Known about the structure:
Elements: E1 2-7, H1 12-26, E2 30-37, H2 48-62, E3 65-72, H3 82-93, E4 100-104, H4 111-123, E5 134-138, E6 157-160, H5 165-174, H6 188-202, E7 207-215
Parallel strand pairs: 1-2, 1-4, 2-3, 4-5
Antiparallel strand pairs: 5-7, 6-7
Amino acid sequence: xxxxxxxxHSDDEVIGCGGVLAKHAAIGDxxxxxxxxxxVSSRENQNQDHRDQALLQSCDILGIKLLQQFDFKDNQLxxxxxxxxxxxxxxxxxxxxxNTVYTHSKKDLNIDHRIVHDVALTLxxxxxxxxxxxxxxxxxxxATHWYDPQNVFTPQRFVDIExxxxxxxxxxxxxxxxxxxxxxxxxxxxxxxxAEFRGSxxxxxxxxxxxxxxxxx
Length: 217
């Protein structure tokens, strides 16, 4: 199976669905990653080379293939026409026929996350020749849970990632510069607590949770 993670920023792939991507790779699926924004242009004193190296290290740990890293401006994806973003992703996919896609939840404070969600739904709309049968939206700590309290992330799918937790944490560690101290939402402790909380809902030790945007059997 060909699996795609379409994310706004490098590190979103780990925080949102790193365990699931590692699980797909472990069972023999071909897992690809597309990153839309550069991740640093909206910040001061951020090193692009350092972040790029962290991305490559993360991909290596999770066993996934970096298909494309675009350089659209960070936290400014709303400046670009949606059609330009969609066509950019479409072009880089080439002949690969994807079966499953993971992307951001629309219920998210970060504008880039919401735009990438729209790109995914536009690109993989259910036309007769569409090969993508499943689209799942993940939560991103320090963004999803800071959004409108009337529009809350509501997962319907839970994936047991206990076996792949060491890979997720190792990939998180690759992005050490992005991590914060607890009680910040983007801390290792919070990431662990969320996995345990999502797992407890499903009766397992650790899980990642997803909204089902589309699933065709």
